[in-house]
Write a sequence for this structure.
């Protein structure tokens, strides 16, 4: 069994990216919008900002109180769309319940949509065209599988979860790489029968649901889940101990998909500026 | 075994739609662009035009020679986008090889995109938002299954084919209805093992590949394929005789999905005008 080491690959990607950035006469500017005071969101945003700054990416965090109105937020995004000094815009999710998330995301100019989540970019991805960027977590997952030369074409990939952030785009990107893809979720019956037929399992639910009896011997396990167990320890969707005895490759949590997401986000930030300069 | 009668439902939908259209003070105008002289395309376009006219939809067919340049076609679409008398635009596929299909489709204003194939509309569909319209064939398939009260939620739906016209959008629409969805294609290994686990099979390949030994007893079979067999007879992707002995419901070819596609296209045409009038 081989650990898919996301930290190691993240460090390698970021080191390469630093060289690329050092050679760029103009550096990207990433604007991150944070509404409210969700503690997890604050940690994510801080991590993104720190990583960006270490690379030489200009990072601006715009913090607003939870009471911010939808119209005020739309106006802010419009300003950032028109600000030629800003090359990338990220709206940290979740947003407060009174704000229509889709409306906000779709207001971002697709050329500055660093998460690849606007309808325009998702539509290009879905239809096999090239979006400005691919969503960060799926991009990170594919970079990690490619680093370990894990074949995707012709494999049965079972994706558990169907969010716009992870489950749906990773399903489509696997399909574009000629995998047979099954997308599962809370309504799926006989989940174990399906996962047992999988060559690659990608789990992005946020609940501990995958045990080793649900896996085929030699399969590849990608665990996107991040939650805290009863003792306050960071844990994933997969029972790692058991699964690691049956899988050929497995991502740890932490240290697997998480670091790859941030690496992919930094790649996206630089790619957007490069595309804008063409 | 029950035949999913697409002709009967088409007639019912079109009769209802005629009443709705008769009450509309302004009728929709559907502009169909046909480039080149593919005989199958001419038949499809004629059918669409005839059906539209019978309903009281204004239908204009713009025919161009195969040598038409991409820029000329883009210019034409731009004219139609700006023509307030035109409420719906359809570009008949396939286009000649020298024209970039995606570029042409994405040039259609999403509000007039009657096939629902622009990146913007596909992105809305993919991300679980509401596109202006859903692509006609998937919409037709769901209308047919709903007419026969076939449950989708929690079922395992196996879609064979991954085109932007049928396979991919029908997969997403089934997923949005809480089915577990597997998308198969030419790279899929052990196709029979997968189809045997399906509660609903949707086949959209254009090749006779589904035999009754590949199906689970009591499954629902939706055959989107249309091709001509060696004797020149219209036929689908499923061996109808055998499959009809094992399936609980099955679409015939012709008379199943084909008529539903045209009914859905007419619904889309009227829906677009209604949305433009809001």
């Amino acid at each position: 069994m081989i650990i898919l080491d996301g930290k190691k690959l993240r460090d390698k990607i970021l080191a390469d990216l630093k060289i690329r950035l050092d050679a760029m006469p103009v550096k990207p500017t990433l604007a991150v919008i944070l509404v409210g005071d969700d503690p997890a969101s604050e940690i994510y945003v801080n991590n993104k900002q720190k990583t960006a700054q270490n690379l030489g990416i200009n990072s601006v965090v715009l913090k607003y109180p939870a009471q911010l109105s939808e119209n005020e937020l739309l106006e802010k995004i419009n300003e950032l769309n028109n600000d030629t000094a800003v090359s990338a815009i990220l709206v940290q999710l979740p947003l407060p319940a009174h704000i229509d998330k889709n409306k906000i995301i779709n207001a971002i100019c697709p050329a500055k949509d660093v998460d690849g989540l606007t309808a325009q970019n998702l539509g290009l991805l879905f239809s096999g065209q090239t979006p400005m960027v691919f969503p960060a977590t799926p991009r990170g997952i594919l970079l990690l599988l490619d680093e370990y030369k894990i074949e995707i074409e012709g494999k049965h990939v079972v994706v558990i979860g169907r969010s716009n952030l992870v489950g749906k785009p990773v399903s489509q990107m696997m399909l574009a790489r000629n995998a047979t893809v099954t997308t599962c979720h809370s309504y799926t019956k006989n989940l174990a029968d399906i996962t047992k037929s999988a060559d690659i399992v990608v789990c992005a639910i946020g609940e501990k649901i995958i045990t080793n009896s649900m896996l085929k011997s030699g399969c590849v396990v990608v665990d996107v889940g991040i939650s805290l167990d009863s003792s306050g320890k960071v844990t994933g969707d997969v029972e790692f101990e058991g699964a690691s005895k049956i899988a050929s490759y497995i991502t740890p949590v932490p240290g697997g998909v998480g670091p790859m997401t941030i690496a992919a986000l930094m790649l996206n930030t630089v790619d957007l500026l490069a595309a804008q300069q063409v």
About this structure: The domain at 25-109 of chain B is CATH 3.40.50.10860 (Rossmann fold). Chain B touches chain A through 36 residues (CB under 8 Å). Chain B has a mean pLDDT of 97. The first helix of chain B runs from residue 6 to 22.
